[in-house]
Amino acid sequence: MEIVLHRDAGAFAAAAGPLLQADPLRHTVALSVLDAMCRGGEPSAVLLTVHEGGEVTGAALRSPGRPALVSAVPPRLAPAVDRALAQADPAVDGVSAPVAEAEAFAAARVARTGCRAEPAMRMRLFVLDALVPPDGVPGRARRADARDVPLLGVWRRAFGVEAEHDGGQAGTAEAEEIVARSLRLGAGEMIWEVDGTPVAQACAKPMIAGASRIGPVYTPPEHRGHGYAAAVTAAASRWALDAGARRVVLFTDLDNPTTNRLYPRIGYRPVHDAVELRFGA
């Protein structure tokens, strides 16, 4: 076994791309982050591949301030990858992946260091079967442009705070840059409007390996309870299909029963559960 650390996203993509693209649903987050690194200049903290018998059999990557993405680290490789990540990137304080891969990596970290591993978020991946837009929701969808960046930046930050994705640490300027980068990369940033007033948004990520991922979806508290989230998610899903996506996927928070009931009603079915685990003393 050989573990290779890559200095740039292009070299990592060349090595790990075929492995990730072989299962674009399982590796949807890793593929999206890697695409942003390669095309949008998102920084990387660590990029790692595992080679056995001349083949790439594992891959892990991390953006600064985020958990390591280990969906492509088979459980049998978790101890070796954990050791390599700890040496190359001591700031790794968590992992995110489908449950089996995340728990195997966490078990390796706990066995090696004696730390604790606690769930920060439990998620479920859904894939679109046949789109069923909701009836009777007032308003219409439109694709966002540069003029919408300030508003969407505020909403992105609010979404992160509510979902505890960043503990409220990301500022509005950083959130605006995330939105601006998303638009530059060609994402379908969709806004639902009622009488010209924006009331909800959903983003369809650029298509990668035939798949587009929806997220985030956000409705400000004062506009909730009217079906806008379902309507704008359906609009973003339609945009992705029209753009050529063969699969459209999204994640839900398993602690949020509303979203887990909502998406099946517009045509999504569950695929697998995933978890983000944080390491502590």
UniProtKB/TrEMBL annotation:
<keyword id="KW-0012">Acyltransferase</keyword>
<dbReference type="InterPro" id="IPR000182">
    <property type="entry name" value="GNAT_dom"/>
</dbReference>
<keyword id="KW-0808">Transferase</keyword>
<dbReference type="InterPro" id="IPR016181">
    <property type="entry name" value="Acyl_CoA_acyltransferase"/>
</dbReference>
<dbReference type="InterPro" id="IPR050832">
    <property type="entry name" value="Bact_Acetyltransf"/>
</dbReference>
<dbReference type="Pfam" id="PF00583">
    <property type="entry name" value="Acetyltransf_1"/>
</dbReference>
<feature type="domain" description="N-acetyltransferase">
    <location>
        <begin position="139"/>
        <end position="281"/>
    </location>
</feature>
<protein>
    <submittedName>
        <fullName>GNAT family N-acetyltransferase</fullName>
    </submittedName>
</protein>
